[in-house]
Amino acid sequence: MESFIDVIEREIEEVRTKIEIIEKRYPTDDGYFLEIKKNKGKYNQFYKCKMEADDISKVQRTYLKKEDIQIAKYLAQKDFDFRLLTILKKQLLVLEQALREYPIENGTELYYALSAERKALIQSEYVDDETYITRWRETFSGGSQRDSFYEKYPITTPYYTERGERVRSKSEKIIADKLAKEGIPYVYEPITNLANKGIRPDFALLNVRIRKTFIKEHFGLMDVPEYAARCVEKINKYNELGYEYGKNLLYTFETQEAGLDTLLLDRLINSYLK
Description:
single chain; 274 residues; alpha+beta; Trna Endonuclease, Chain: A, domain 1; 2 domains; four-stranded mixed β-sheet; three-stranded antiparallel β-sheet; 9 strands
């Protein structure tokens, strides 16, 4: 799970990068700035301006013609960037101060310091990843409900995953094996409260880093009209129940001509599950 320190450090890095970009864009300040005036209250007039070296109360102004619009744009951009630079530097100071003053001690360290006997008695969000994954899998086990489901809908295909699970298609074997290889915890055909709505997901997946669950569906035979129509209905029902692609729902497709896109599967894993 991403910590406060992780968030602050990432924000500091992003602010520093923005500061570096602006400072590289303007290695020196030539002192020129833009003034915009209304000509008789109707037309904008642009002036390239600079303070007098010997008297800063006086300003040198050079009128910019229409063909000098790029100069006006440059001066306006520079003024904006310099003001933004001031804001970014203030943000950086506050972020760095927050990082220095934030207590090093945290709940994770407190939990890890406990004995195994004491840990077993405590429910905590700070459990180690291994414990969290074990408990997460248990929530989808289903017990007798799972057994009754398989009695009613047995798997008769010859496809087994590297973990020894029997799955319903070759593509699901590929998906399961890829997840296992990448270290992504999964439960095949998990028992969830979606069953009350007539939905049985193909996979439940866990992003361990942020401890977030995704439902994963694989839709094969999308070139069969009746099957494709049922898949669309299923996706619509997911959406009605608050499941959206990329938020907490992932899916892949294939047809008889075009099989599972393993490159897409890699992108899904890297984008949402790591």
